[in-house]
Amino acid sequence: MIELAYPWALLLLPLPLLMRLLPAYKESRDSVRVPFFAKLVELSKQRPEQGARVIRRDRAQKFLVNLTWLCLVLAAAKPQWIGPPIEQQKSGRDLMVAVDLSGSMETQDFALADGTNIDRLQAVKQVLEELADRRPSDRLGLIVFGAAAYLQTPFTDDHQVWMQLLDETEIGMAGPSTVFGDAIGLAIRQFTQSDSSNRVLIILTDGNDTGSTVPPIDAAKVAASYAVRIYTIAIGDPTTVGEDALDMDTITRVSEISGGRTFEALDQKQMRDAYLTIGELEPELYESISFRPKQSLHWLPVALACILYLLYHTIMALITRKTRAADNAA
């Protein structure tokens, strides 16, 4: 299918008709008036001609001029070849993961299948890598928080880069505390800069809030106003006391306000089950984008005009040369 990008350029087609309203071009030459003109004609053996004449084009020239103008106007209209529709699927959900990097995450209370104990952060990394593999259609982001919340990875479709930056996180790199509410606030800021209307925040923490600028419950209310669903996963032993104790009431309340859900993960299996449940609650979502490729064809009429122009003048040059050769032979 061919269409014109600038169809209004065709209005220039009748412009040459206005040229007929202009007077013909006249070229003046110097001349000498002599009283013996008749004698001069007789001696030179040349036939006298009119002193002024209008040079007119032959049919080939008229055709070539009109066709050249048509080609130039058509090129200015920019014809384009429109290809068949192509549909592409893009991620339809923004999924932000916030990971607690406070000092309590180094507790080695998660056991592997072979009986080896690993710290909580290593267990989180293993499960999150499985999550990234299971959700290829989601745009993933990563926030780490401790004494402050930091954006480790903005939303991206490149899960390989996301997992690499997750693997580079270390316990304590964000400080020893747990600013649960500030992590929610930072996530909201990232969601507001995204065009997706499907927004999910997963928070993994093993402690309670220890001094966020915005309390977690207030941050959850703001998240709900931006249609951000928060799923919280409480890691570790809920019977822990002191600063590292899990504030299950606040964690549960944050999820309820935002329309999410709370999970407790005492081991790696429960953590994996929590992600599988979240996957069922938030199924994969795709958005289809349809577009038609365009290829400009404006060079074709220009090339046609140039070829015909060169062809015409080549033929005329050969005819002129042949005529002169015949005259010289005579």
Comma- or semicolon-separated keywords:
alpha/beta, six-stranded mixed beta sheet, VWA domain-containing protein, 330 residues, single chain, 13 strands, three-stranded antiparallel beta sheet, VWF_A, Rossmann fold
| Biggest sheet details | 6 strands, mixed
Q: What would you call the structural class?
A: alpha/beta
**Unreliable residue runs:** none
Q: Can you count the beta strands? A: 13
The overall number of domains is: 2
**SSE run:** EHHEEEEEHEEHHEHEHEHEEH
Q: Helix coverage percent of residues?
A: 25-40%
What is the number of helical segments per DSSP (H or I, 4+ residues)? 9
Q: CATH homologous superfamily of the largest domain, by name?
A: von Willebrand factor, type A domain
Which architecture of the largest domain does the CATH hierarchy give at level 2?
A: 3-Layer(aba) Sandwich
Question: What is the CATH top level name of the largest domain?
Answer: Alpha Beta
Alpha-carbon Rg, integer: 41 Å
CATH topology of the largest domain: Rossmann fold
Content of β-strand? 15-25%
Distance between the termini: 58 Å
